[in-house]
Specification:
The protein is of the alpha+beta class. The chain is built from 15 helices and 20 strands. Helices cover 40% and strands 25% of the residues. Keywords: Membrane, Transmembrane, Transmembrane helix.
Length: 605
């Protein structure tokens, strides 16, 4: 008897993918059919792409403006950043991270829009995995899917580098900002000054404005007050001698040699200029900005001024003898003298040469000195001869003859807060300094004052440079004396300018021009590499956003609001339908029943 038996369905084990798909279908089949709501995709694409393009444009415009003119932070904030570099690094790293995150978020929004549209037609697992990797900024490494792997890897690298690029772009640097400065000073070459200097008294025919007395003088102006000696060789001989030593050290190659004039420090020598700029002698400060607010001052700055100075052309050489003669007039016992070497002598030093006839009496140490004498061969020519002749313990030194011609100079004076030093460099000489011609006489007077109970102070200081290692090993006595005399003449020139500038009725002034440079925190032509890094990435982001938009709009202009591209179940369903090359009709959820039937059919075979 034939018994007909209904065949049982063949049971097969479902893969995890199939289980997810069936679960999704069953859930959808239990839902009553309804029409899904939708949104116009073009509006959202326009919003996201506009924001991406706008922010990209802002980054480029920011760099362009910063390359053309300085973009500076307030001075106080800039100084705070300098004082807190670690905190500043945290701030700019955070700003770069936020900027990169905004760009990546907008790009992700475009991607999700595209997914919501592309999923209507179904998608393969490969495509969905690519979407997922791009949305989460993760790379895919699969040799069987090289194009997709390459795309995700590029996106991943861009996401990693974008923060660094924006941090580099937004991190400020020290920006040098320059401004012209302008002032004036007493002009020794002006006819008005010469006429004022040569005014003579009606009773004795003596110049009434020339410096004669040695005293301390106080000068007060609208910018400050200063009390100074009119004759530094009497009131400050040690400071005066240091000017000669410093000039000699500079000639020998010492970089940190300096000389002080009141409260201003000069490197090497003063160049015979009066420091009238910022951080100079306040009472003589006659320099302001051309365009900036005159009250603006910065803690860190440099400036350069073209100023007038006083110097001398000096040439010294060894000679077999000099015209100096000496005659001991008297030996003086010194109280508490240990031996005869501590006795003093009254000595007459004389010179008779051409028009030079001098007799000077000095009290000198019996152990010896280096005698000096100044001679002006021609009264109509401001050129001098200067002689040095050693006696006693200095007999081993050579006899020196120097020619000295005082000069008015044009100097380039610089100042830097980094060193606190003025540097005066002679750029040209104007000619013999006939008005005033006091500097060389002051040098001669200084040497008289520098003779002490133990010898010659200036000469001893110069000779010490040959034993203390301050020189570069090429010390020669004539060159050292030459440098010292020039430094002394320039130091005397500076005090000459101080004295005559303090005379309220002195006339004749010249313009002083210069450039003031300060360091501010900001942006200006200092980060070209930042744009080279950011620009390709910005262009890449814009092009990818455009590509997402193009691929999404190919499926239409509507977005199904009920489809969530971040939901794994929805993506699995879309992938299943994509694998069967069926469309996913999300407008009617009953369309999922067809997929269920298709899956059941596969199971029954």
């Amino acid at each position: 008897m034939y018994i007909h038996e209904t065949p049982k369905p063949v049971l097969c084990k479902l893969s995890s993918f199939e289980q997810s798909a069936v679960h999704t279908v069953e859930m959808a089949g239990s839902t009553s059919p309804q029409r899904a709501s939708s949104t116009n995709a073009i509006v959202w694409y326009l919003i996201y792409n506009s924001l991406i393009i706008s922010l990209s444009g802002l980054a480029v415009v920011f760099w362009i403006i910063g390359s053309k003119r300085p973009l500076l932070y307030p001075v106080e904030f800039g100084e705070w950043l300098r004082a807190n570099p670690k905190t500043g690094t945290i701030i700019w790293t955070a700003c770069g991270s936020v900027s990169a995150a905004i760009f990546l978020l907008l790009l992700k929004c475009c991607l999700l829009l595209m997914i919501r549209q592309r999923a209507r037609e179904g998608a393969t697992f490969s495509t969905i995995e690519g979407w997922n990797r791009c949305a989460n900024e993760q790379p895919l490494f699969n040799t069987k899917r090289l194009k997709l792997s390459g795309f995700t890897i590029v996106n991943w690298l861009v996401a990693l580098t974008l923060t660094t690029a924006f941090t580099t772009l937004l991190t400020p640097t020290n920006v040098l900002v320059s401004e012209g400065i302008l002032g004036d000073e007493l002009d020794y070459t002006a006819d008005e000054f010469r006429d004022w200097y040569n005014i003579r008294g009606s009773d004795n025919n003596v110049p009434v404005n020339k410096r004669y007395l040695c005293e301390r003088m106080t000068y007060t102006s609208s910018t400050g007050s200063v009390n100074f000696p009119t004759c530094p060789h009497t009131d400050d001989p040690i400071g005066y001698i240091s000017a000669g030593v410093s000039a000699t050290q500079q000639t020998l190659g010492v970089d940190n040699a300096s000389v002080r004039v009141i409260d201003s420090l000069f490197q090497g020598s003063t160049g015979g200029v009066l420091p009238i700029g910022f951080r100079g002698i306040p009472a003589f400060n006659n320099v302001d900005f051309k365009n900036w607010d005159p009250s603006t001052r910065y803690p860190h700055f440099n400036y350069t001024l073209s100023q007038q100075g006083l110097s001398a052309e000096v040439s010294c050489y060894e000679t077999l003898d000099t015209p100096i003669e000496n005659k001991i007039l008297e030996t003086l016992n010194v109280t508490n003298s240990a031996d005869n070497h501590n006795t003093l002598q009254l000595v007459e030093y004389s010179i008779r040469k051409d028009f030079c006839i001098r007799q000077d009496k000095w009290v000198v140490p019996s152990i010896g000195v280096v005698a000096h004498s100044l001679c002006q061969p021609d009264r109509d020519i401001k050129k001098y001869e200067f002689y040095l002749k050693p006696f006693g313990k200095y007999d081993n030194l050579p006899k020196i003859t120097c020619t000295i011609e005082p000069m008015i100079t044009n100097n380039l004076v610089t100042y830097s807060t980094a060193t606190g030093l003025f540097t005066s460099k002679i750029v040209e000489t104007i000619g013999s300094s006939a008005v005033p011609n006091e500097t060389i006489a002051n040098v001669n007077d200084l040497l008289s004052y520098s003779i002490t109970s133990w010898g010659s102070g200036l000469i001893d200081s110069i000779l010490s440079l040959n034993t203390t290692g301050d020189g570069s090993g090429n010390f020669t006595y004539p060159v050292a004396v030459e440098s010292a005399l020039r430094g002394l003449a320039e130091y005397a020139g500076t005090y000459s300018r101080i004295y005559y500038s303090a005379k309220y009725n002195a006339t004749g002034r010249s313009t002083v021009n210069g450039t003031y440079t300060t360091s501010r925190v900001g942006y200006h032509q200092t980060q070209p590499t930042a744009l080279l890094i950011v620009l390709p990435m910005i262009l890449y982001l814009v092009s990818i956003a455009g590509w997402y938009t193009y691929k999404g709009l190919k499926t239409g202009v509507r977005i199904d609001d009920d489809f969530d591209p971040t939901n794994s179940t929805a993506l699995v369903t879309a992938a299943a339908l994509g694998a069967s090359k069926k469309g996913l009709n999300l407008e009617k959820f009953t369309g999922l029943n067809q997929y269920y039937e298709m899956v059941s059919g596969f199971q029954s075979q």
